[in-house]
Every structure is written in C-alpha cells, then in structure tokens.
Amino acid sequence: MQLAYTVHARDMLAERAIPDEWVVRAVESPLRTESHDDGTTHYLSNVPERSGRILRVVVSAKASPPIVVTVFFDRRLRR
C-alpha cells in the first residue's frame, strides 16, 4: 500500500522505533477502525513484536495517497 507521511509521523516512527511495515500492516489489516469528524481514520492493530501492544495509526484519507499524520502505541487500550 502506498502511504505518505507527515514530518511529525516520520519523527514519531524514529523516536518510537516503529518500522514502516507495522504501519502498513495496521492500515491493511486493522483490528478496528475509527472515523473521526476531523476527516481522519484511526487504524488500530496489535503488534506481536511488542508483546501485543496496540498501535494507533492516524491517517488523513482525504489525500491521495493517504497521509499518515501520527502513529503511537495507545496505552488506553489493552491487548
């Protein structure tokens, strides 16, 4: 899947040691998606490589290709 990344998203990937592959996997095969009023879609996926922690990928789907706005492990959600 073709995704673009904001500078912030790239910084967060580096800071949090999250490979692009995990982002693509979350977007292609999410456990759950959430549509928000701001036009973003949140993709949630567990990451077995991080003990099943939940990765949240926020994407602006209005653009083509979709733009990853930010990515983080969601501490509010349990495995």
Would you mind describing this structure in some detail?
This is DUF4258 domain-containing protein. Pfam families: DUF4258. It comes from candidate division WOR-3 bacterium. The protein is of the alpha+beta class. 24% of the residues lie in helices and 37% in strands. Strands 1-5-4-3-2 form a 5-stranded mixed sheet. The protein is globular.
Short key terms for the protein model shown above:
single chain, 79 residues, alpha+beta, 5-stranded mixed β-sheet, globular, DUF4258
H/E series, N to C? EHHEEEE
Strand order of the largest sheet: 1-5-4-3-2
Whole-angstrom Rg: 12 Å
- Unreliable residue runs: none
The largest sheet is: 5 strands, mixed
- The DSSP helix count reads 2
* Share of helix, binned: 10-25%
Put the structure in a nutshell.
It contains two helices and five strands, in the order βααββββ.
Write the layout of secondary structure elements.
Elements lengths: L3 E2 L1 H10 L3 H9 L3 E4 L4 E8 L5 E8 L6 E7 L6
Parallel strand pairs: 1-5
Antiparallel strand pairs: 2-3, 3-4, 4-5
